[in-house]
Design a protein that fits this description.
single chain; Cytidine Deaminase, domain 2; 9 helices; 12 strands
Length: about 270
């Protein structure tokens, strides 16, 4: 039996739609998913008890789906069942994003669960390589895409984020702790042109970190991403083929076409 540890956003609902039977759905307190009913809300201090109950319920596989920020832990609320996992949990909360995800996976595997990737459950969320939109990237955009890949790879060394905005070979903004939406809001264009008053063009580049464990935190875009990119004054979206999930793909393509934007599912160079 499969259980989803569901975070914020639409990914948990997308997975539930694609599964032959409904999984058990859990949510960390404060991080409710969109569009699905949660069976159990839990706090990290009670993780051990939750895992014990999942085993009693017949759960053998767990999938992370959706966004979760690092919660605060109340040491006085930690129960006895969680104590064996406490060193790993503390290490995760103090680690980089990649380190935290690896530690979270380690806790589940230590408890006897198999950890499945969201894109393994729903492989159709990974679009094929190509440019499905009417608009096509020009030579400048292709150079910016290559620059975006180099920037995200450099960011991976510092474990900063998985996205950047690029224009004429320059990083307009990079993704940090607040995510892609916040990054794009910082670029919202003014009435006289781009975010700096003169820019017209640029792209959002999004890709997983080269060394990350892809069973969790694979990047995602959806229709809201297209809207945010357009509001930021950018004219294209480039995602790494096989590394970025696209929710509501047909809607994404239609939204890009309506705005004269391109979507490029680009093979990693």
């Amino acid at each position: 039996m499969l259980a989803l540890i569901a975070g914020e956003g639409a990914l948990p609902a997308a997975l539930v739609e694609r599964l032959p039977s409904r999984p058990m759905i859990l949510s960390l307190q404060g991080f409710r998913p969109d569009g699905v009913e949660v069976d159990r809300v839990f706090r990290l201090e009670k993780l051990g008890s939750v895992l014990k109950q999942l085993r009693r319920d017949g759960v053998t596989e767990i999938c992370f789906a959706g966004g979760i920020r690092r919660p605060q832990i109340n040491p006085l609320a930690i129960d006895l069942a969680t104590m064996p996992y406490l060193p790993t949990v503390k290490k995760a909360l103090a680690a980089s994003d990649d380190g935290a995800l690896r530690a979270a996976i380690a806790v589940l595997e230590q408890a006897g669960f198999a950890v499945r990737a969201a894109h393994e459950i729903a492989p159709d969320l990974l679009p094929p390589a190509g440019i499905p939109t009417a608009a096509q990237p020009d030579d400048k955009a292709r150079k910016d895409a290559a620059r975006g890949q180099a920037i995200v790879e450099a960011m991976a060394g510092a474990d900063i984020g998985q996205a950047c905005a690029v224009w004429r070979g320059q990083a307009l903004s990079i993704e940090g702790i607040y995510g892609t939406d916040w990054m794009l809001r910082s670029l919202r264009r003014r009435p006289d042109g781009g975010a700096d008053g003169s820019r017209k063009g640029g792209l959002l580049f999004k890709a997983p970190k080269p060394t990350q464990d892809r069973r969790a935190d694979l990047p995602i875009i959806g229709p809201k991403t297209v809207e945010a990119v357009a509001e930021a004054g950018l004219t294209g979206i480039v995602v790494e083929a096989g590394g970025v999930m696209v929710l509501h793909r047909e809607q994404v393509i239609a939204a890009c076409d309506d705005r004269g934007m391109y979507l490029w599912v680009r093979e990693r160079a």
